[in-house]
Every structure is written in C-alpha cells, then in structure tokens.
Write a structure and sequence with these properties.
The chain has 3 domains: about 5-175, no CATH class; about 195-400, no CATH class; about 450-730, no CATH class. It contains 21 helices and 24 strands. The strands form 4 sheets. The protein has a 16-stranded mixed beta sheet that branches. Strands 19-20-23-24 form a 4-stranded antiparallel beta sheet, sandwiched between helices. Helix 15 (about 555-570) runs antiparallel to helix 16 (about 580-585) and helix 18 packs antiparallel against helix 19. The longest helix has about 35 residues, at about 615-650. It is elongated and about 105 Å long. The chain starts with a strand and ends with a helix.
C-alpha cells in the first residue's frame, strides 16, 4: 500500500495508506496538503463530530493521466487542487433542493464524505473528453466529484482519518455506460464542466406581425396579412454554458441522471432550424425566412416576389437571433432559481427495465452531450425537462412591418424592404431610407433602440389616424391597429423590473401588491422580459382622437396634458432618483400652466417652483414637459384635420372616396400634418408611457395582453376586452 503524506496549515503531519488497486494508487498519489483548515488534528474524531465541512487541498500526482482512462495529460507530474466535503445529518439532504430532483436524505447515524477535484483536459484529448454529459471543445477544466455514504458501526461513525481513506480508495470518475451501471447505491458522482448539450425536436414559435403605416400616401387598407401566426419549426437546440451533471441511485434499479445549470450563470441557446425541409437551416439559409413570410403573407411566394439573396439572409439571421433569444429567455427563466444549482433535465432510469441495448445507447448519448433520446426511452421517467417546457411557453416574436399600409402590394413591400433586429428581441421590416436612419452605429443589422421606439410610436399614431379616417363610408369591420411595447435584459435591475410591473398595474392588468413577494429579496433578475400589446378596433381608434366620437369634439389641451401627466406619475416610483421632484411638478396644475406659458425649457430655472431643483432634477422635469407637450400638440393638430377628412367622406357622392378630389385634398393635408408630427416624435411615446397615455385617453378602449417573466417566473395577463375579442373571433 502506498504511503501518502498528509499536512495541513498548522504544519501537523500524518501518513495514510490506501489500496494498491485504487485509482489514486495508479495515479501515484504521493502527498495531500490541506491549505485552509487544521484537518490532521481532527483525524481521530468521528467524522460527524469534526467541525470541518469543506476543506481545500492540493495533491501531488506523479501520473495524473492514469486517474481515469487517459482523459487527462499523461507523462507529467502535476499538483491537482480539490476539496474534501463532509455532509452531515444536519444538512438534511446530500444536494440542495431544486424543487424537482429526487433527494438523497442524510439520515441520523450516517454522513457523506466526498472529494471534488479540478482536472485539466487537453485539446488533443477531445475524443476522450466525452463522457461527462456535455460536448467539450479545446482545453478546459472539469470538476469531478465522488461522494460516499458512511454508516455508523457499533454506535459511532468512522474517524475522519478512516473517512478520508475510504473517500480516496473509492474515488472514481464514471464516464462510460458500464461504469455507470456499476455505480454503487451508496455513492453519488458529479461533473462540473463548461460545454454544450444538444436536443432535437419541433417547436412552436408564436409570431405577431405588427403592421404600421407611414405618413406617405396611400393608406392601402386592402392589402392583407396574417397578424397572429404560429410557425412550426423542427431542428436542434444547442445549450452552451456551465453545467453540473449528477448520477446517483435512489434504489438498486433506479438511476437518476441529471443536467443542472450552475448557480448564478446563464445559458446561451443556438437554434438550428429545419422549417418545412429536411436538413439543417442556419442563419445564412433562406428557407426559414420564406416559411415565416409565407405564414404572415398568405399566398405570397417570397422568392417570386423578389425577396432573395441578402434580404432573405438578413431575415433568416434576424429570425434565428430572435428564436435564440426567445428560447434562451424561456430556458434560462425555467431554471433560473437564485439559491441553488438549477435543474434543467433530470430523468429517472430503470436500469433493469426495457431493452438493455437501447437503454445503454441512450445513456451513452447523454454522456456525449446529446440528451434527446431520453425522451424516447420507455423505462426513463422524466423528472424535469426545460426543453419540453419551453415548447409549451415559447416567447412571442414580434415582427414590426413599418410602412406596410403604404405599399402598393404585399409583393412590392416584400421586395423593397430591409431587415433590422431590435436588441429587445424584435424584427423590423422597413424601407431602405428608413432603415438607414434606424441603424445602430457600427451595427448594420441592428436597430438603434431609441430611434426604433420613436419610429414605432410614429407608425402607431399614423396608422391609428388613417384607420379612424377609414371608418367612414369604407366601413372596415375587422381592421385593427396595434401598439406594442417590449423590454428585455439578460440581467435586469430590481428598479427596471418594478417599472414593468408599474406599467402593468397602470394598465389595470396586474393587481396592487401582486408580484411583490416574488420580486422581494433579489437585486437583479435573469433574462427578464416584459411585452405589452394594445389592440384598437376602428371604434377604439376614433376614441383616441375625439372626446365624443359621435360629434367629433376633440380633446382640449388641458385634458390632453392632464392625461399625459397622470400617466407619467403612474409609472414613477417615489423612491427613485429625481422622482419626487418630477411627481411634485407633474401634480402642480398652476406650476404646469406657468411652464406652458413660458414654453421654453431654457427659461425653466427662472420659474418659481423650479429654481431650487438640481441640474438632474430640472433635466428630468424638462424631459417630462417636452414629451407631454409634443404629444398634446400632435393630438391637437391631428384631430381637427381628421374630423375634416371624415366630414368630406360623409358628404362625398363618390363610390370610392379616393376618387373624390375634395377628399384627397383633405387627406393630403392630414398626411402633411402627420409627416411633420413624425419628424419630432419622442422616443418616450414608443415606450410604456406612450402606450399607457393612449390607453387612458381612449377611455380604455384597447384590448390588452401582457407577458412578464424572470428567474423562472412567467406571468400572462389579458384584459376583459381581449378575452371578449377572442371569444367573438371564435
């Protein structure tokens, strides 16, 4: 038996002999030094009476490659770092409870002792590196752990010395099916490693096509699209991140095989789609783009319409990025607990049931990083599978079609547009001139968020105006206009998340106090996303512009600005920086009137009530005033001209008002106003405030739908009007 020299940070020493047939004997373990705790002094104590729970060490291995099958660098001397772990009955369970996985209870009179080692894998050993449950490329470090249950004999547990000896002698790294099958009931193995795991299957991706108009004539309400669609895509998911793989028996026949996302980390998701074809489709292929456009625009062949080459590649790339974002948000959200390693895929496998050859094939595939086949194994019971979960709750992809209603035809629109992607996970189709204005600096395929919000806000206001104008003799029945809002962050602050909740409360979707418990206690929220859709029918569109649609009496400036001010207040948290000053000013009718009479933010520091504000407070107040003033001015200009257009339609004898010269003159005047308003659209209008202020101005005429999710929480809210609309459609 080899002698192993044991030392600790107090310079106490001891010798330990281990079996010649153990893995550490083959690896020529010669010394073990504990760096942070006085371990040797506790050697004679029963293992459950030592205060040691986690002790770091370095160990000298003269042949580390022999530790397990040559997976690690061979022929060199190496110091391997690791830790001794002792889990006592007071811990309750061997692993933290993730809410899903079968637990290994630590009963009174037992404890678990284990070794965790950090081992280097060389790139040249790529093939040998398989077997840990993930696919690994290049040099990496794997943390391998083996835990052993110890039981009391003659009323007491083994000494710490004997426990360490047992842990060293029974240490192993099971990386093959045969080794997994031989794993004893009283052991558990872990592997902590960064890499990729893959899954194959089909996924339903909901799509919302938000069609918007520009100020330019014509407003072609006759062209149609399918605004709500679901794209069925088959393909593979590659999940890359830091994982923990656990294997242990819960009985003589039941093996638990689990894949866990490491606590506090995020998973990157890459989706490789095969949409309606065989084989894989990546971001440079056009099939996915064609499938999506064919779904949105029934009867249109994008290739025939001229949507080919770089256009198709750009849309495929944007869609793939959005699908990646959608699936990554859902998968990280499904396993994003903050206090433990989060289970992603866990199966309980009956090793004696079913076809043994098939069982071995499935386990071997999982050890290589492909976890797909576990779903098909009859003797495997799913404990948890977030990939399956995400199929049932994929996040919606919004495709904003800017300028759609100004196109001569769907084919012309498809042919002439360019594709951009929004950082919040949306796709934008827009004409080439507007695309150049919306691009983010240095990122030709990405939209600038602020500019895009302004463009979408302008598009909604224009579309709503034209829709209201079309409500005369044209008598459109099913036409709707939609205002959308989206916010996404891989890590969102508690302040930002609370803003999303306040928007939901202001829209009367989220109840007061709701979600407070779920938000409490965390500073940041992983993969947080909030989306809102507000849909107006033609009647609702008229109520956006007229206090009394029957008489077309418009709103006064006082009414508009009061609505804008109360909407701003509803979204402010009094505890946030500058918020108290903003709320005070927004609530002060007299002060607001003086600001309006002054009409120049540069002169605001001279106004009583504003003099004592700090520079940042004054800047925030000025921004509020500018947003509200712009919006009120826009509504005051648009509404009277819209009334003239409607009056002209009613008095026209033409079957088609667009052939009436008088109508077209009034409509051109409306276009000119909208074009001028659009030049000065504030990005705040494309944000949550713009959606809320229009909802309140319309006397809550919109049908609303909201999703908000983070850290595994996914909440869906629907207004009564939305439910009624859905029931009517069915």
């Amino acid at each position: 038996m080899p002698d192993i020299s044991i030392t600790d940070n107090t310079q106490l020493t001891a010798d330990l002999k281990i079996s010649d047939t153990s893995a550490f004997s083959f690896a020529k373990l010669s010394s073990l030094k504990f760096s942070d705790l006085p371990v040797v002094g506790d050697f004679q104590k029963p293992v459950d009476q030592t205060v040691i729970e986690h002790a770091n060490f370095g160990m000298r291995l003269d042949s580390p490659g022999l530790l397990n099958g040559g997976a690690f660098p061979t022929g060199v001397e190496a110091t391997v770092t690791g830790a001794l772990d002792i889990r006592k009955a007071s811990s309750g369970t061997l692993f933290e409870d993730d809410g899903f996985s079968p637990q290994l209870l630590i009963r009174p009179g037992t404890c678990w002792v284990g070794l965790d080692l950090q081992l280097a894998i060389a790139a040249k050993a790529g093939a040998a590196a398989q077997g840990f449950g993930v696919e690994v490329e290049g040099d990496t470090v794997v943390g391998v752990g083996a835990l052993l249950r110890l039981d009391s004999a003659s009323g007491s547990l083994p000494t710490l010395r004997d426990a360490l000896k047992a842990a060293l002698e029974r240490f192993s790294i099971p990386r093959t099916v045969e080794e997994i099958r031989k794993q004893p009931l009283d052991t558990a193995h872990t592997a902590e490693i960064g890499g990729t795991v893959t899954f194959s299957g089909s996924y339903s991706v909901p799509i919302n096509a938000n069609a918007l108009a520009s100020a330019s004539l014509p407003f072609n309400y006759k062209i149609a699209l399918n605004p709500q669609a679901t794209l069925e895509v088959g393909g593979s998911l590659a999940l890359t991140g830091d994982f923990i793989i656990r294997t242990y028996r819960t009985s003589e026949t039941e093996l638990t095989l689990g894949l866990y996302k490491k606590k506090g980390t995020s998973i990157e998701v890459q989706f490789t789609a095969a949409a309606g074809v065989t084989g894989n489709i990546d971001a440079t292929d056009t099939d996915l783009a064609g499938a999506v456009l064919g779904t949105i625009f029934p009867g249109i062949d994008p290739a025939v319409a001229g949507f080919t080459g770089q256009q198709a590649e750009a849309l495929a790339g944007a869609l793939n990025a959005c699908i990646d974002n959608s699936l990554a948000t859902s998968i990280n959200g499904s396993c994003a607990a903050s206090r433990t390693d989060e289970s992603a895929v866990v199966y309980s496998i009956n090793l004696t049931g079913g076809d043994q050859t098939a069982t071995d094939k499935v386990i071997a595939a999982a050890l290589r990083g492909d976890w797909t086949l576990l779903e098909t194994l009859p003797n495997a019971r799913q404990v948890r599978n977030v990939v399956r979960e995400v199929r049932a709750k994929s996040r919606k992809i919004v495709i904003n079609l800017l300028g759609f209603y100004n196109a001569i035809s769907v084919s012309e629109y498809v042919k002439s547009c360019e594709v951009l992607r929004d950082p919040d996970g949306q796709v934008v189709l827009v004409d080439k001139t507007s695309a150049n204005q919306l691009r983010a600096a240095g990122a030709p395929k990405l939209a600038d968020s602020e500019r895009l919000r302004a463009a979408i806000g302008e598009g909604f206001l224009t579309t709503a105006t034209y829709a209201a104008a079309a409500a005369g003799k044209l008598a459109l029945k099913d036409f709707t206009v939609e205002q959308t809002y989206a916010r996404y962050a891989a890590k969102m602050s508690v302040e930002e998340l609370r803003r999303q909740v306040r928007l939901g409360r202001a829209l009367k979707l989220i109840g007061d106090g709701s979600l407070d418990t779920k938000i409490a206690g965390a500073d940041t929220f992983a993969h947080a996303k909030a989306t809102v859709e507000a849909s107006y029918d033609l009647r609702g569109a008229l109520r956006l512009f007229f206090a009394d649609p029957s008489t077309r009496a418009g709103f006064s400036r006082a009414q508009l600005e009061k609505t804008g001010r109360t909407a701003k207040i509803a979204l402010l948290d009094p505890s946030e920086t500058n918020a108290p000053a903003r709320i005070r000013v927004l609530n002060d009718d007299k002060l607001w009137a003086v600001m309006g009479e002054t009409g120049n933010v540069a002169a605001f520091p001279t106004i009583d009530g504003l003099r004592r504000l700090s520079t940042t407070e004054l800047g925030a107040v000025a921004a509020d005033w500018t947003d509200i003033r712009w919006w009120a001015n826009a509504m005051l200009r648009v509404a009277p001209q819209l009334a003239k257009v409607l009056q002209t339609i009613e008095s026209s004898t033409a079957t088609d008002p667009t052939t009436d010269a008088g109508f077209m003159r009034q409509r051109k005047a409306l276009e000119d106003i909208l074009a001028d308003v659009g030049k000065h659209t504030r990005s705040a209008f494309g944000d949550g405030w713009g959606l809320l202020v229009m909802f309140r101005l319309s006397n809550e005429a919109a049908a609303l739908e909201m999703d908000i999710g983070w850290n595994g929480v996914l909440e869906h809210y629907v207004s009564a009007a939305k439910v009624a609309t859905a029931l009517g459609a069915s």
